[in-house]
Amino acid sequence: MTDPDGTAGVIAVAGEALVDIVPAPVDGYFELAPGGSPANVAVGLARLGVPARMIARIADDLLGRRLRAHLEGNGVELDHVVTADEPTSLALVSVGPDGGPSYDFRISGTADWQWTAAELAGTLRPGAAGPVLAVHSGSLALTTPPGAAALRELLGRAAPDATISYDPNCRPLLMGDPADVLRGVHDLLATADVVKVSAEDLEWLAPATTPERLVEDWLGRGPALVAVTLGPDGVLAGSASGLRSRRPGRRVEVVDTVGAGDSFSAALLAGLHRHGLLGAQARPALRAIDAETLDTVLDGAVAAAAITCSRRGADPPTSADLAAGAATGQPAGP
Predict the structure, then answer these.
(1) What is the pLDDT averaged over residues 102-131?
(2) Could you tell me which residues belong to the region Disordered (predicted)?
(3) What CATH number does domain 10-16+38-87+115-121+128-328 carry, 3.40.50.2000, 3.40.50.10540, 3.40.1190.20, 3.40.50.12780?
(4) Are strands 52-55 and 225-229 parallel, antiparallel or unpaired?
């Protein structure tokens, strides 16, 4: 299988696939929605025409079966999903006046965090879509024991052959001391090639650090590309070769910002994939990315995030949505 540009290969996404309990349009009611940052990224990639493989532990319960149906219905490869005995994780979501979400979680003893090395042993093998060109992970999956250590080892094992993409996607309620989390982030920067972090994450992890200083610091720790998303102000990014770019946000009527960062990550990876910049052989070219390509990829990611903000919940855009937004000069609506 190849993407529309003829490039064979798949992007594997490792981490949680959980259920969000979100406010319904009718006040006082709630509804269930598929969620989990890594799962949202996998769906976003598939909707953009990039072969995506989900590496997850999904429960064999009512909610887990709905998660599988959602992922499969969006074209995400599930061959390496573990059928877990534990129940599905839950995230309770509230949305503030500005559209920003707050989270509460029910994750004790649930499926997403129980990884073993044996379960992950064959997850990076080539499949129908070709070899694994990149592995993306982040959020709770890389900080929640006991499975976090196994997933971190997976990223290290994948690094010689694949681009490693990382999004800390911090959840302060569950991640503990930000200084401890930041040390773990720094450890992963030695492995990661592409890193996306939000200004909100930065405020919690290192409140005394500006986005500009963070880009310089994190690039010095090993990645080829670091992008700091700035909400409505767009994105600041830098490359290992010395490029620095600030791209503007897209004007959109915000419904909520749930999943916007995940849509950014998916579109960022899809753009790099489209330009042939994923995979170990492309690592030198990724580190030497030119200004025009970097700006094009960042603009696509900003547009994808803006479209998601114009919709309820984590509902990433398709390639057609992005094309429609490019044609009009504004993000496409729902």
Answers:
(1) 92
(2) 312-334
(3) 3.40.1190.20
(4) unpaired
